[in-house]
Amino acid sequence: MNKYQLAIASSLLIALSLTSGCSENSSDKTSYTPQDLTRDEVCMIDGMILLDHPGPKGQVIYKNGEPHFFCDTKGLISTLYDQNYNTKIKQAFVQDFGKRKWSSYSDNWIDVKQAFFVMGSSQFGAMGPTLATFSTRSDADAFAKEFGGSVLAFNELSEEKFEAYQKRIRQQLRDAIGNISTSNEEAAHQH
């Protein structure tokens, strides 16, 4: 290789090394710290004050560093699957219920990708049926044994499984409303 070819090869290597960090596909290893909740934090979906409601919460940190909160883990998971939001999210967190009681408040945030979810338990969150979240499978298994449901790691919680769960919940609510309406009509006819 002559000096001219060496100079061109060196220039190309330098240029490639300088631009490789600018690619959209580059993996930013910045880790964000979840923000503790205060009375000022509201759900990004419905404006509910997070501290006023039991059950697991969620939060996302967008690539610009801005946090958004969810009064329920279902809202968080829906947002992670939403194409309008998921490309803007840098990191997401849920609360570890292995370290707290359902109705008490404590942050105990864990990365959503490290969480274990209990889907279909008898416990309700701010928006009704929800996904309980834990940092260990053993805590999730113990919760599921006590309150029902199935345990899934984050990578097992596919969009299809989540949507099927959401459909079951909606059908159960429709059935419950239908039963209430039928009961009210029967009671009205008896008087």
Describe the structure concisely.
This protein is α+β, with helices and mostly antiparallel strands. The chain has one domain (35-181).
Provide an overview of this structure.
The model is unreliable at 2-26 (pLDDT under 50). Strand 1 (58-62) and strand 2 form a beta hairpin. The protein has one domain. The protein is globular, with a radius of gyration of 23 Å. By secondary structure, the chain is α+β, with helices and mostly antiparallel strands. It contains four helices and seven strands. It starts with a helix and ends with a helix. A four-stranded antiparallel sheet has the order 2-1-3-4, with helices on one face. A three-stranded antiparallel sheet has the order 6-5-7, covered by helices on one side. 36% of the residues lie in helices and 21% in strands.
What are the key terms here?
191 residues, alpha+beta, four-stranded antiparallel sheet, 4 helices, 7 strands, 21% strand, globular, disordered N terminus
